[in-house]
User: Fold these one by one.
Assistant:
Number 1:
Amino acid sequence: MSEKERLFLSDLARVTGSILQAYVICRRQAWLMSRNISGNQYNEFIAIGRLFSDETYKRDKKEIMIGGSKIDVIRQKDGIITLIETKKSSRMIEASQMQLLLYLYNFSKKGRAIKGEIRVPKEKKVIPVELTDDRIVEVENLISEIKCMLQKESAPTKEWIKFCKTCSYLEFCWS
Ligand code: SF4
């Protein structure tokens, strides 16, 4: 294997929050994202998501980058840090929870007391996310699975799922 190929593969091995979230929804989507293949950036659902992210919790908004991913809000109280992610709906809540768990996992390695919260203001929902021992195993297994999938030379085959109709790769996959 050439040095160039080795570097390319080690770069792919970095599982970001966005790739993990995509993987939980659709493996093909995660693979395409990892190759920087862009979907339709003007997809109206992405635009709504951006608008929502810009307008919500403006007052105490403080974004930071963790492992190449943006966290919406961080609060610190009594020595405990809370990572807060805001979502426009709970439609993809399982994927959002796993993404947040990855951030908590990465943070926990630094020995900080930390917890997570997903907020869906339009549905008036606040969902606590906790990194328990079982969740740690789940995150670690998921990271290994994703790394394996990302090393593959071709994208997983497409399968129509309910998320396709709002996916930015809709045209890429289905036209
Ligand atoms: S359009 Fe469907 S199959 Fe294609 S990447 Fe998106 S969710 Fe996956």
Number 2:
Amino acid sequence: MRLPILQSDPKAAYLAYQQGIDAAIRRVLDRGWFILGEETARFEQEFAAYLGARHAIGVANGTEALELALRACEVGPGDLVITASHTAVATAAAIDLVGAIPVLVDIDPATYTLDADRLTETIQLYAARGQVGGPGGLKAVIPVHLYGHPAPLPIILDLARRFGLRVIEDCAQSHGARYQGKPTGVWGDLGAFSFYPTKNLGALGDGGMVVSNDDDLGERVRLLREYGWKERYVSSLRGKNSRLDEVQAAILRVKLPDLEPANERRRQVAARYQAMLSGLPLRRPECHPDALHVYHQYVVRTPNRDDLRTFLRDQKVGTLVHYPVPVHQQAAYQSHYRPGAGGLGHTEAVCRQVLSLPMHSELTGEQLDYIAEVIRRWQPPAEPKG
Ligand SMILES: Cc1ncc(COP(=O)(O)O)c(C=O)c1O
């Protein structure tokens, strides 16, 4: 067995599909059409069919997928958008890119996604102040399906309907995840995906996708991703350049048919971790009974996180912390957000305790046995440091 064991392994993901990917790249090179051609169009159709969406629009990355979704909903300068503070900073960056301000709501520490009660209280609070809809009011909610676990979508959709808010799902970590059998991405007005190489469906470079079942919103995103062009060189909207390129689309077409089995392999890895780590002083991930988790990350919690991380690193096991600093404590955002109701206590506690163990669909049983054996040897310090 080769050491170190990487926390994620995009090279292994390439090698697992090498023949198909090499042939797909060759096909694009031979055709000589590199931007918005047959590969992107077909990948958009295939991804839309996979999710049951009417529209799928390939874009440059996941951050811009969120940005374009917000712009399609006409969220703009001074508007308020609810999301979680425990997320990739990209979620807040996208809100900032359209000039809007994030309203940061605490998470449910069991699922690491928006807490339904805190979300309800926040919307009610802003409604009581007359700050829903209208200029400078709440316009949208971005639930983040963090680590591959869906946010509580039925409650979010119900609140959004009652208060006239748009829902844009951040699906960067949830390709193939479902809630009550329905895929993430098609619950809200729009869904935004990233194909960053380590994602469950990963490219060999940057890529993203916006999906929608709303014809109007889908058409707006399609225009916005290329200078607002309805026809070439004629802008009917103030758009930008955010295109998925042909090479990445061709690569993603090779991997999409294997996404379901690859997610199943991730669930098997998670099930083995659950069994192997039982009885240890670690909080293991939980899965809501209505949710189909896709384990983008397998995240454990301990007050001795840094000690465990160092111990694993010394034994050549890679880990990461997703995420060490919540958005509201980042230097760039600490004076550029509004607080949700009820504070951010869980967010601030979990960021000191979470540790992402190695997780990808190519992990072998031998590697998992080794990781578990190393963790079993770890002795937490007598005095917790977290
Ligand atoms: C939750 C979340 N949202 C958004 C993004 C942004 O995606 P990208 O890196 O493709 O811009 C990422 C990925 O980094 C993410 O994990």
